[in-house]
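I am writing to request your help with a piece of structural work I have in hand. The matter concerns a single protein, recorded as an amino acid sequence and a row of backbone structure tokens. Could you please explain, in whatever detail you think fit, how the structure tokens follow from the sequence? Thank you for your consideration; the sequence and its tokens are set out here:
>
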Amino acid sequence: MEFFKILHKYKKSRIAEINTPHGTVTTPIFMPVGTQATVKIMTPQDLEEMNIKIILSNTYHLYLRPGIDIIERAGGLHKFMAWKGAILTDSGGFQIFSMEDLRKITPEGVLFRAHFDGTEHFLPPEKVVDIQNRLGSDIMMCLDECPPYPAERGYIDNSLNLTLEWAKRAKLAHKNTDRQALFGIIQGGVYRDLREKSAEEMVKMDFPGYAIGGVSVGEGKDLMYSVMDWVGPLMPENKPRYLMGIGAPEDLWHAVENGMDMFDCVLPTRIARNGTVYTSRGRIILRNSEYKEDFTPIEVGCGCYACKNFTKAYIRHLFNVHEILGMRLTTLHNIYFMIRLCGVIKNSIENGNFEKEKEKFLANFEI
């Protein structure tokens, strides 16, 4: 069976299938983030009932806690967390490089101290691949350096060269190529020629899929959209395109318009735990007093469990008395919203009215 198959195209946008050992994923797709082998507050059953086919976990966090040996003895990450669907594991590069005071970058790999106990660890790109091989994830990511914004051109150039060298080493170290797909990551900051250089060199390595990294790190939406516009045409048509760390609803439309297939972000679940939910009109904060006597659902017509059974007034009450059910319901709703939005986008591609649906969504959705 083909790993990746395009089913329908509309201009740059496309609907495709990614076939993994743990099921078929239809794109465009938003992947809920289960950093530490759990999507916060959710059970696997919750996700299955929302028809979630793939989630994301994090190599860095799982390597530190509970440790790869424990997960391996449990039978791999899928069995450890009782998840039947596909799993993409990030390399942990973003987490490591966000700890500027706790790590040192070398050509051989990354030396860092754990964020919770200060223990010292060294991760070369080969070990990051080995960890993910042992986890058994369906899609794996190469170790990359995720540079900050802003950063000098010279730093970005050196950074992307390091990422390219690590990608070569990662590919050579990769086992289980028949059941685990290793993706390369395109870097280059906000410099067009460096992004193009990174894409061209990464594509030469012939990975099964490619990601755009180093976006949504403070550069602003206009620059983020520009990066997609520069890099998208250089990414192979016949392979998945993953835009890392993107999860604002308005951004999905722009990304799909530029040919992207896969997205992940902690934003929908993080804001949910603070009482903020997505609606077709934009975000609303359920803790606000205006919802004290609002006995309507979060969104009329939404099919999620929260909207079918509870009111804004009730969920607001749960937050005010610090009951965890409030966070659970808002998280359910926001994940469902993102999955339903992907469905709307897919329909617009199939029906050839993508621009009309995008304009309609953005006109109503207050950012």
Summary: The chain has two domains: 28-265, 272-362.
